[in-house]
Amino acid sequence: MKQAFLFLIFAITINSYSQDKPVYPEPKNGFKRVDLMLPKLDDKEENYKIEVHFGRIASLTECEEGSFTFKPDNLKKQYGITNSTRFPYYSLENSTGDVITGKKSGCNSTVKVNRKILSDHSILIEYQSFYVRPFYIPETWTVEYRIWAASDYISIDK
Questions:
Q1: pLDDT the model gives residue 7
Q2: How far apart are CA 123 and CA 137, in angstroms?
Q3: SS3 134
Q4: What are the backbone angles phi and psi of residue 63, rounded to the nearest 5°?
Q5: Residue 43's CATH number
Q6: Are 53 and 118 in contact (CB under 8 A)?
Q7: Structural domain containing residue 108
Q8: Residue 154 resides in a domain
Q9: How far apart are CA 11 and CA 9, in angstroms?
């Protein structure tokens, strides 16, 4: 009887902690939610980082290269569980982003093409594959990421 009672207490305790599910807001008008779900790695995840950029489509001439900027202060990191540092999500406060173009030398084409350009600003986040990382971004933007791996320590002797 004592073992059954202890098992019941254990099951109730595990169940109460598993109910801690994140609550994410609905996207604002003109925004969308993009979930970043990373693949599981065979190696230790603490040896990796994720560099996140935002992308968008811009109408440029064939001779132009482009990028866009936004204020990184407008990207807010919040959490899906109140008073916790678990289940982070990122939301942009406004959708403004200035497109910066540069023209290739020796090119005179005026034909317009739609091209994906990436933001100049990026964020670096921890690699973790156990839950999604939601991003609330303007409907015309995308989330692009790059995985960075740490190498062994290098000693420099003088």
A1: 62
A2: 14
A3: strand
A4: -90, -10
A5: 2.60.40.550
A6: yes
A7: 30-149
A8: no
A9: 6
| 3-class DSSP assignment, residue 146 | strand
At 36-56, the pLDDT tens digits run: 999 998 888 889 999 999 998
Domain count of the fold of the chain: 1
Tokens 């320590």, residue located? 153
Give the helix ranges, DSSP H, for 27-91: none
How much is the pTM?
0.76
Say if residues 55 and 142 touch (Cβ distance below 8 Å). yes
Which one has a higher pLDDT value, 19 or 93? 93
One-letter amino acid identity for 3?
A: Q
Neighbour count for residue 58 (Cβ, 10 Å)? 19
Q: How many CB atoms lie within 10 A of CB 81?
A: 13
